[in-house]
Design a protein that fits this description.
Structural class: alpha/beta
CATH class: Alpha Beta
Number of strands: 13
Bound molecules: flavin mononucleotide
Number of helices: 11
Organism: Actinidia chinensis var. chinensis
Keywords: Flavoprotein, FMN, NADP, Oxidoreductase
Strand content: 5-15%
Cofactor: FMN
Largest sheet: 9 strands, parallel
Pfam families: Oxidored_FMN
Radius of gyration: 19 Å
Family: Belongs to the NADH:flavin oxidoreductase/NADH oxidase family.
Shape: globular
């Protein structure tokens, strides 16, 4: 029986993948006090396969990077030490593990910030308080001279990720967080060299790409983008131009992959009909393209078969099906995800207790 397209091997630079089903980065809010916990080793190793790529949940680069409860960081020695056994557990199963490095920017409030200070961003326009039920605080606009130190935080976080044993990092430039805030013209209202034209708005993101690639090698660096999304009120008036601009611009640094969220995912978890596609970015970018956003087995296979993407990342389906590659291979039924347990702090429930096929528990 011929393998389905999602289960064919792929060379991701020096990483020999045995299949094309990627674990999308998923915040699970179970890293107490911003320190990853032993239960994360169970969770990630459950989803690891020999030659499969996993992307860790968004992981803060500094003490101003957080905006959600119990999310992990990678700026302290304690956090690096805590990641190590988790990374080891994935490597023991032959998995390839990238760390998604993250700064929320204005998607935060005083309670998550050191000394209760204001969150930082390219702007002083806040996210509408009450959006998604959170009392977002008004941000403080970064001065021009404060921006290079943030770039450096990403560089240091990438170094720390290497020290923890990760195979590479994914720079989180998607979903309305700080990098996306700089890129999107509906958020960035700066008048210095980091605002205005598309070149200026992409300067901070590209400085991060360059710094991280210099630090750990471009062959270990990916970047996630969502030009079409308006998640956390970060939208752009010309998302296709923005996406293609970034795809061309990162070519200069020879990074390993771009991981792009489909235009149909304007909000996380919702699907829209749209005439847009990732093809213009696919054509512009020289490296590996990972597509994400509302994929199932059939359209994942189609994306690979038609060379629309090299790899496909699965979020909610992989969250609920630790053995997703095996289930896709067998075309087996899938467990349904339970949204109400996505972000609860429980170390087991909704986290490591989704059954494997062999458990033979009705879904
Ligand atoms: C519980 C949950 C947590 C998420 N956390 C992150 C995250 O940390 N970083 C990120 O880039 N995207 C995050 N996302 C978005 C997913 O990576 C993915 O793009 C989205 O769920 C759409 O893919 P899907 O339809 O396969 O679930 C999250 C989504 C969910 C449902």
């Amino acid at each position: 029986m011929a393998a389905i397209p999602l289960l064919t091997p792929y060379n991701l630079g020096k990483f020999n993948l045995s299949h094309r089903i990627v674990l999308a980065p998923l915040t699970r809010s179970r890293s107490y006090g911003n320190v990853p916990q032993p239960h994360a080793a169970v969770y990630y190793s459950q989803r690891a396969t020999d030659g499969g790529l996993l992307i860790a949940e968004a992981t803060g680069v500094s003490n101003t990077a957080q905006g959600y409860p119990e999310t992990p960081g990678i700026w302290t020695k304690e956090q690096v030490e805590a990641w190590r056994p988790i990374v080891d557990s994935v490597h023991k199963k032959g998995g390839i593990f990238f760390c998604q490095i993250w700064h929320v920017g204005r998607v935060s409030n005083y309670g998550f910030q050191p000394n209760g200070q204001a969150p930082i961003s390219c702007t002083d326009k806040g996210v509408t308080p009450g959006l998604d039920g959170v009392d977002w605080s008004p941000p403080r606009r970064l001065r021009t001279d404060e921006i290079p130190p943030i770039v450096n935080d990403f560089r240091l976080a990438a170094r720390n990720a290497m020290d923890a044993g990760f195979d590479g990092v994914e720079i989180h430039g998607a979903n309305g967080y700080i990098i996306d805030q700089f890129m999107k013209d509906q958020v960035n209202d700066r008048t210095d060299k980091y605002g205005g034209s598309i070149e200026n708005r992409c300067r901070f993101p590209l400085e991060i790409v360059e710094a991280v690639a210099d630090e750990i090698g471009a062959d270990r660096v990916g970047m996630r983008l969502s030009p079409f999304a308006d998640y956390m009120e970060a939208s752009d008036s010309n998302p296709e131009a923005l996406g293609v601009y970034m795809a061309n611009a990162v070519n200069k640094f020879n990074i390993l992959y771009l991981h792009v969220i489909e235009p149909r995912m304007v909000k996380i978890g919702e699907r829209y009909e749209t005439p847009h596609s990732l093809l213009p970015m696919r054509k512009a970018f020289k490296g590996t393209l990972i597509a994400a956003g509302g994929y199932n087995r059939a359209d994942g296979n189609k994306a690979v078969a038609e060379n629309y993407a090299d790899l496909v990342a699965f979020g909610r389906l992989f969250l609920a099906n630790p053995d997703l590659p095996r289930r896709f291979e067998l075309d087996a039924p899938l467990n349904r995800y339970n949204r109400s347990t996505f972000y609860i702090p429980d170390p087991v429930v909704g986290y490591t207790d989704y059954p494997f096929l062999e458990d033979n528990v009705p879904a």
